[in-house]
Specification:
The protein is α+β, with helices and mostly antiparallel strands. Helix content is 29%, strand content 30%. The longest helix has 16 residues.
């Protein structure tokens, strides 16, 4: 008896084997890389947290591929919470992402050299805003790459760093670390207004002041020895070039 195996069957097997052979990892909002087991537990815990307050809750995850090789895939993720009560379904959008396509309400912020800055100071150029704080290790880890990005574009792009911390704290940090962005300090009220939920966070704004993209930290890359290192920010450079 002859056995016939179609080309489609063979290709399906090859593709499936390739995908299934790759270990999945997930990058948390604070830049930590976790495995599938840890990710599933975090997702379950988050769902149980909402179930304590709402009768019917579903959690949907949106995955964005950050890195892939023959052995592994790394995703960033966003969780969308859908709550159903009294036959009315609502989706709660939280965080800076709700401003995508809209103007970020930047006004009367204070720089470390006591100058006032607002949206009008930024219009006419694309802007990259980095939300950070001095004891956030993932925030500090990407500063060198952010400085290189700034040196690429020089004055053609606004580069602004925003933190809730006070002047003395940031000044002490900057004496030991070069961070070549305009430094906005003491911005807790603004951070509360836009419902910032994690750091680092990088917000890309067009020449008109509208948010076009919100990213976490600069994507990490895997070394040949399997260890993770922060990338060179080529994805950020590509986004900014589109906005020029």
């Amino acid at each position: 008896m002859k056995i016939r195996i179609s080309y489609l069957t063979i290709m399906t097997f090859i593709i499936s084997t390739s995908v299934l052979g790759q270990t999945k990892y997930y990058k948390t909002p604070n830049g930590k890389i976790i495995n599938s087991t840890t990710y599933s537990k975090l997702k379950t815990d988050k769902l149980e947290h909402y179930k304590a307050s709402f009768s019917q809750v579903t959690l949907e995850d949106e995955l964005k591929e950050l890195y892939r090789n023959n052995d592994s895939i790394i995703y960033s993720y966003t969780w969308n919470i859908k709550m159903n009560g009294n036959e009315k379904t609502t989706t709660k959008v939280v965080g800076v992402e709700k401003y995508i396509g809209k103007v970020l309400p930047i006004k009367n912020l204070t720089t470390i050299d006591n100058k006032s800055i607002g949206l009008n100071n930024m219009k006419g150029k694309p802007t990259l805003i980095n939300f950070w704080f001095t004891t956030c290790k993932p925030c500090v880890a990407e500063i060198a790459a952010l400085n290189k990005i700034k040196s690429t574009f020089k004055d053609s792009v606004n580069f602004i760093a925003i933190t809730y911390e006070k002047k003395d704290v940031v000044t002490k940090f900057l004496k030991k670390h070069d961070y070549d962005f305009i430094q906005v300090i003491d911005a807790q009220n603004f951070i509360n207004e836009i419902n910032l939920t994690n750091c680092p966070l990088n917000v890309f704004i067009d020449k008109e002041g509208k948010v076009v993209s919100v990213e976490n930290s600069i994507p990490y890359e895997m070394k040949k020895d399997g260890k993770m290192k922060i990338g060179d920010g080529k994805e950020f450079i590509k986004t900014l070039r589109k906005l020029l």
